[in-house]
Amino acid sequence: MNFTLKVWRQKDKETPGSFEKFDVVDISPDQSFLEMLDTVNEELAARKEAPIAFDHDCREGICGMCSLTINGIPHGKQNRSTTCQTFMRNFEDGEEITIEPWRAKAFPVLRDLVVDRSAFDRVIQAGGYISVRTGAAPDANAVPIPLDDAEVAFDAAACIGCAACVAACPNASASLFVSAKIQQFRRLPQGQPERDKRAARMIEAMDREGFGNCSNHYACEAVCPKGIPVRYIADMNRDYLSAALSGVEFDPLPPIEKDPLE
Amino acid sequence: MAIVRRAIVRQASVPSAGRSFDHPLLRLLSSSIGKKLVMAVTGVALLGFLVAHMAGNLTLYLGQDSLNGYAATLKGNPLLWPARLGLLTVFGLHVATGISLARENRNARPIRYDRVEPQTATWASRYIVFTGLVVLFFVVFHLLHFTIGAVQSEVFHGVDAQGRHDVYGMVTGAFSNPIVSGVYVLAMAVLGFHLYHAVQSAVQTLGFAHKSYKQTLEFGAKAIVALIVIGNCSFPVFVLAGLVG
Amino acid sequence: MKLDARAPEGPLAEKWDKHRFDMKLINPANKRKYKIIVVGSGLAGSSAAATLGELGYQVECFCFQDSPRRAHSIAAQGGVNAAKNYQNDGDSIWRLFYDTIKGGDYRSREANVYRLAQVSNHIIDHCAAQGVPFAREYGGLLANRSFGGAQVSRTFYARGQTGQQLLLGAYSALQRQVGAGTVKMHPRVELLDIVLQDGHARGIIVRHLVTGKISRCAADAVILATGGYGNVFYLSTNAMGCNVTATFRAYKKGAFFANPCYTQIHPTCIPAAGEHQSKLTLMSESLRNDGRIWVPKTPGETRDAGEIPEDERDYYLERKYPAFGNLSPRDISSRAAKEVCDEGRGVGPLGRGVYLDFADAINRLGQDTIRKRYGNLFEMYERITAENPYQVPMRIYPASHYTMGGLWVDYNLQSTIPGLHVIGEANFSDHGANRLGASALMQGLADGYFVIPHTIGDYLARQEKREVSIDSPEFDDAEAAVRARLQSLLDVDGTRSVEAFHRDLGKIMWEHCGMARNARGLEMAIDEVRALREQFWQDVSITGVNDEFNTDLEKGARVADFLEFAEVMCFDALQREESCGAHFREEHQTPDGEAKRNDDEFAYVSAWEYKGVGEAPELHKEMLEFENVELATRSYK
Ligand SMILES: Cc1cc2nc3c(=O)[nH]c(=O)nc-3n(C[C@H](O)[C@H](O)[C@H](O)COP(=O)(O)OP(=O)(O)OC[C@H]3O[C@@H](n4cnc5c(N)ncnc54)[C@H](O)[C@@H]3O)c2cc1C
Ligand code: HEM
Ligand code: HEM
Ligand code: SF4
Ligand code: F3S
Ligand code: FES
After folding, report:
1. Could C69 and A64 be called an inter-chain contact, meaning their C-beta atoms sit closer than 8 Å?
2. What is the pLDDT of residue B16?
3. CA-to-CA distance for C551 and A42, rounded, in angstroms?
4. Ligand 5 within 6 A of A78 CB?
5. Could you say which residues of chain C have pLDDT below 70?
6. Which is nearest to C101 in space by CA: C113, C91, C90?
């Protein structure tokens, strides 16, 4: 198969980027999208040109590292899958394929198609956990959990943190991601003691990262490779409201710091 | 250790506890979800006004006396100004918050996509600010038209047999002009778009998430919207068709 | 140098308790004066960093991905073992210990394995408390399944995503500590060297992958939790970034590398679709419960599977191993698959695959039942191959999956370099010559949550507290060496991509040091690897400069290390003149093709000491003593 790629190239965070076009030929339909880019990069290496930088690791749809907006759709049009699990047979021969990075203020582009998603980590740091000291846990069967709750907690926990939801949201809102983590814990007995504080802190952390607001566009749900439903956002709103009205007290969030090793 | 001091890139932009935003309510309202809640609550209040307003206007079909009487009762009510103030506040909050949200949302993506394939986001949802602004212009026009009488003042100043403001004459007079009627019908269509997304959005925002009642609520809300749009459009249409007035 | 395992004296069941009592403690108020570096944020690294942070140490944690949550542990599917005996089916700590020793074909250290079985139960308690959504029964209690042929149901699981859920639990704990300021997390930072002072590990040299900035980090102790080296085969089920760099750098600084030849091959992976294949995807072994494995009887068969009549199919596992058939152990089924493909009877585009056929199961149980059992896996298979496994048989082929070898560590998980501790898949400790299913997750978390937090305290308490500083000649030298190496990679300025060299290396290793090995092949492999390495340093094309986001350079540095490490692997495989666990030497088999272990001569851990690039490393032996189990031979006939 042959394609024309229109790829976003950007040297680093500071330098403005632009599109570059590549004609690629002889691509096997069984190649994954990333393997197609590998082929391009090998060719570039032979020509001593800089490879197209993109994030990836597991290549089996679970680590959440890959992240391309392909023809205007995060992770491409193949439903319920990640970019690494998208295959060239799903494209038309001869097609022009536009490849862009996740676009959001909260995710600065680091190079080409690679963005900085550390904002997600900071949101989790604010409260995406159950505080349990190693060694302090009771027997695992001491707290039975109704099967339904356990199942929903799992559905929510399946989020891979890829941030396609942000990339697809017309407002670049992180609501779906945040609501998934909140949902996981709000359904579990272990999650109750910190429930209010968690919602309040995580939303506050989310807000200061520069994500947009949720206007209930539901584009996030459509691209989420793990099928996280927007219903969780409604639950999150409720939790946040009750937390805020109860005037939950919590320590201020730590400042956002730059890694000195950078 | 190499790592001694870390450069601070961004300070918390949402003030944390211990400062002026200490009050839980202020803190709530300054958050993204708080603003959404403001939109939803004011939006639903406005929806309530629209239902009442339309119901009142339906007296048009009962004849001149009914409508003028209804209008006079409203006008004579001592609560008129408090109610107007309340409505203005709600409307103002809705508009101001809506515009601020829209601005933040734009800023959240400084570099746009070259190519976008909108996913489920509907036309109504993506253009909600636009439809909102059109409604805003309509309301201004509408007030100038029927409340202040700056537009088409020739139909505004009528007085009926009992010496009341002839609202009936004003409305029928105004709508017999096809351009005016056209403006109203168009505005109602835009309002319909605004509300089409808005009502199900409000249900979600307010946290009615469970399938069992979410669908019922959404259906009910959409029925109300349809009623408002159809009811409101009926006035200019009936007048133009010569069935009223 | 004599290898001292430092396993405590006394009865097996009391060793760990007694050891914990004998270990020195650090005063709680003093803990914050100690700085500990944790490299890696997988199950082992995250759990260690989080727990050490909780205890009050200052922790610096590193990973090369953009977030600690993406470490390769995320990909584990099957489950995690523990000796809870919740099913009341006769499990116990002793049985888990015994099964693990036996599964490792009697090439692991009793004391470590027993401790692993002991703390396994705490892992489940802790993870459940963290909110890890383990599978449950209707009554709300935890569910178990039997995994990898175990006779008891002791595997806890979270749908097919156990690794993900456990890692997210550890990641949450880690993030909590980052938020609390006890752990500083450095994502997108790669370790490139280890710094020793007075013979103790005192720091590391790292490169920031976005800016290329080289930095020094000093600490009171260093923990490596950098995962396995399965990518030496190029194609494996490992993530693309998995590498040997961290452990290999430590090896070059004096840490012994133990049992590098023990690599596990998983029989049910989706075969490569072509030369372009970059990694292989594992499918749960449970598929073998209902699928039948076969290849055509005649080599060079060109008909589609459906057109091959029953009597022209060879159900080779059922034929050769009637007792276990399609459920024969991983190594046996893997080798058998390779054999039939070598005979030219393989199926699929590259002739490297065998059929896994569900037609009988569908006829017997109905499509719905099969869909219920394997729906997700079938979907995944179809997405990747565009073939519908309800209609045509799946194609599977073995792939490198796990590496039992790793840096040698003692009972305290300390390497031969004092102060350098190694946990998780990066060490060699618990699995001997083969790993049981669902035991790697257990080991990573045991090391990180429950072992290293104690033993590192003992190490620190026994040292005189010293000023932690990055200003020393050792740091100067290490940094200069790292810079020079990166520069020399850039200076080659050749014409072949890093990827091409890696692919070639993979082919050599898979062919000669893969599922079945022999002396001639291994000797050839050593020569070929050396030649390839030479070619690499003359002709590799790495563009750009160091001071930028340079994915070629990143990968080039890793492959350069693989090219040196591969040799050590071959030496180890060559030296081990027996077949044990996952290591199969063709010279050492029974007449009917069973592995022949040689306990008299090879009941030891081989630990290799670095002697220079291109030099043969020196072998050291840790003799294994089995006081509690009797060595038995397995048979699957
Ligand atoms: C597909 C698959 C399925 C599996 N299924 C199971 C199963 O069902 N049950 C089971 O028990 N086991 C399973 N395993 C094995 C198990 O997942 C791993 O052995 C285990 O997760 C390893 O954990 P770890 O913490 O040691 O290393 P990893 O999770 O690999 O983490 C390594 C960490 O080190 C970092 N790192 C590596 N090199 C460097 C460097 N040079 N500089 C800085 N950082 C570095 C990485 O960023 C990462 O954070 C499976 C493995 C695979 C591949
Ligand atoms: C009578 C007139 C109006 C009614 C009944 C109304 C009703 C609503 C409702 C119910 C919502 C949904 C809130 C939610 O998402 O939860 C909404 C949203 C919105 N309205 Fe209105 N509205 C009206 C007028 C306006 C006007 C004049 C504007 C002008 C700017 C406006 C702008 C918006 C915007 C921008 C939103 C979306 C906010 C967001 O979710 O980001 N609306 N409206
Ligand atoms: C075709 C439909 C409509 C008709 C026939 C209509 C008619 C009227 C009339 C007759 C009045 C004047 C009442 C009086 O002076 O006593 C009025 C006032 C008003 N209308 Fe409408 N209206 C319509 C639609 C709307 C809509 C859609 C909105 C809001 C979005 C709206 C908002 C208002 C407001 C705010 C006032 C002023 C109320 C006051 O005096 O305090 N109307 N309308
Ligand atoms: S919610 Fe879905 S799209 Fe968003 S980060 Fe999680 S998995 Fe990705
Ligand atoms: S698309 Fe965006 S607006 Fe909300 S529902 Fe999803 S986050
Ligand atoms: S590379 Fe891991 S999800 Fe795509």
Report:
1. yes
2. 42
3. 12
4. no
5. 634-637
6. C113
Structure tokens at B179: 């351009």
Residue C159: count other Cβ atoms within 10 Å of its Cβ: 17
Whole-number mean pLDDT of chain A?
95
**How far apart, in whole angstroms, are the C-alpha atoms of residue C260 and residue C426?**
11
Round to whole Å and give the CA distance between C239 and C401. 10
Burial class (CB in 10 A: 0-12, 13-18, 19+), C381: buried
Give the residue on B whose Cα is nearest the Cα of C37: B1
Identity (one letter) of the amino acid at A39? T
What does the pLDDT look like over C564-606, one tens digit per residue? 999 999 999 999 999 999 999 999 998 877 889 999 999 999 9
SS3 C472: coil
C contacts of B2 (beta carbons < 8 Å):
215-218, 470
- Distance in angstroms (rounded) separating the CA atoms of residues C430 and C107: 9
What is the number of other CB atoms lying within 10 angstroms of the CB of residue C472? Answer: 15
CA dihedral (B232, B233, B237, B243) positive or negative: negative
Contact C501, C540 (CB under 8 A): yes
Q: Is C330 a catalytic residue?
A: yes
In the chain, the amino acid numbered B19 is R
> Predicted ipTM?
0.94
pLDDT in tens, A129-179: 999 999 999 999 999 999 999 999 999 999 999 999 999 999 999 999 999
Q: Taking 80 as the threshold, does the pLDDT of residue B1 lie above it?
A: no
Distance B200 CA to ligand 2 centre (A): 12
Question: In whole angstroms, what is the distance from residue C302 CA to residue C299 CA?
Answer: 9
Whether residue B243 has pLDDT greater than 80: yes
Is A24 an 8 Å CB contact of chain C? no
Q: Strands A114-115 and A109-111, how do they pair?
A: antiparallel
Nearest to residue C229, comparing CAs of C564, C539, C518?
C564
Of B24, B34, B125, the CB nearest to A217: B125
Q: Which residues of B touch C35 (CB under 8 A)?
A: 1
Please pick, among C330, C558, C576, C585, the residue that the annotation labels catalytic: C330
- What's the gap between Cα C79 and its chain centre? 15
* Contact by Cβ (8 Å): A183, A152: yes
pLDDT digits (tens, 9 = 90+) for C175-200: 999 999 999 999 999 999 999 999 99
A107 pLDDT more than 60: yes
Ligand 3 centroid distance, CA of B46 (Å): 12
Distance (Å, rounded) from C-alpha B145 to C-alpha B149?
A: 5
pTM above 0.90, yes or no: yes
| C183-186/C58-62 β-pairing | parallel
Residue whose pair of structure tokens reads 């000649």 in the numeric block: C473
Element (H, E) at C196: strand C189-197
Which pLDDT score, from 0 to 100, does residue B121 have?
67
Mean pLDDT of chain C: 95
Q: What are phi and psi of C84, to 5 degrees?
A: -70, -30
Six token digits for residue C563: 């090219």
- Place B2 in a pLDDT band, splitting at 50, 70 and 90: very low
Say whether pLDDT at B6 is over 60: no
Contact state of A105 with B110 under an 8 Å Cβ cutoff: yes
- Look at residues C70, C66, C43, C55 and name the one whose alpha carbon lies nearest to residue C183: C55
Q: Can you give the pLDDT at residue A154? A: 96
Angle at A256 between CA A251 and CA A260, to 5 degrees: 130
